[in-house]
Amino acid sequence: MIVVLRPRTPEEQIQEVVGAVKRFGYEPRLIRGVELTVIACVGDERRHHTLETLTVMPQVERVMPVQKRFKLVSREFHKADSSVRVDGVTVDAHSFHVIAGPCSVESERQVLETARMVKAAGATMLRGGAFKPRTSPYDFSGLGKEGLRILKKAKQETGLPIVTEVMSPDDVAAVSEVADMIQIGTRNAQNYALLHAAGRSHKPVFLKRGMASTVEEWLNAAEHIAAEGNARIILCERGIRTFETATRFTLDLNGVAVAKKETHLPVFVDPSHGVGRADLITPLARAAVAVGCDGLMIEVHPDPKRALSDGAQQLVPGSFEEMMAALRPFAELMGRRIG
Ligand code: PEP
Ligand code: MN
Q: Which of 78, 113, 129, 246 has the fewest CB atoms inside 10 Å of its own CB, making it the most exposed?
């Protein structure tokens, strides 16, 4: 941390800050300029009490961190792209995987039909929510355990690994019995009890970015999982809140490019929730491939107009197939093979 003092701070007040820095467990090194004095505080910021508290002292102008808060998930810690195995599927720097399926598990027929079709079109994992976080308490909130049973059956039939959301630490064990990768949704992206429970599980975790999280907060959320001993994490950009209302959210491909630099974890993109409109999924999926993401999550429903959630953004099977065909040359250009 660097502590910047106000111009012309008297010596006695400088020493007051020096004393406080020492009490926090850092070694202070004074840099005296003509007007400004700066204190470089040597010590591991991850172990010590935060020095940001010092901003309450009137002679302190700013406290600036020099180290990133996340470590295990950072590229500094692990240079090469990490690969994550999800059942029989390996996500790595050469592959390109598409996770597809309905927003919500609604019926056995709906899921099985979708699973067969997305597999035939090249998807390598099946998604579907059994536990659904909904903005309104009156909306369909998933079939719960019955939904898990249906997903299990879909896996038995198609062999596709299952990706499904868990909303509460208490459900991690039950969801993990069926899920090959547990999803933490945008609304729970900073639910630390849930992140810790996912970190203690032995399942890969698909971590959506919080809709109001900065990239740093997103990577720190991943660090919470990794710090509990589970490094099998895939990040997913799914759109953030901005002033724009033409689309449901704003798909932050900047954030994907930043995340690819800052972390060794695979980064996926979910254009379905990002734009919220079926007609914009393919162009955004193409852009996501071009920006260098490692895979996509796409919502597909056999009959979106009857969907119990997110009908407007779910692709019909035919459109999903067309999207996959449209993506192949882009993936090849990026040196990746789909599937
Ligand atoms: C989902 O993928 O089903 C979902 C609810 O996504 P998000 O958490 O990104 O809104
Ligand atoms: Mn959805």
A: 246
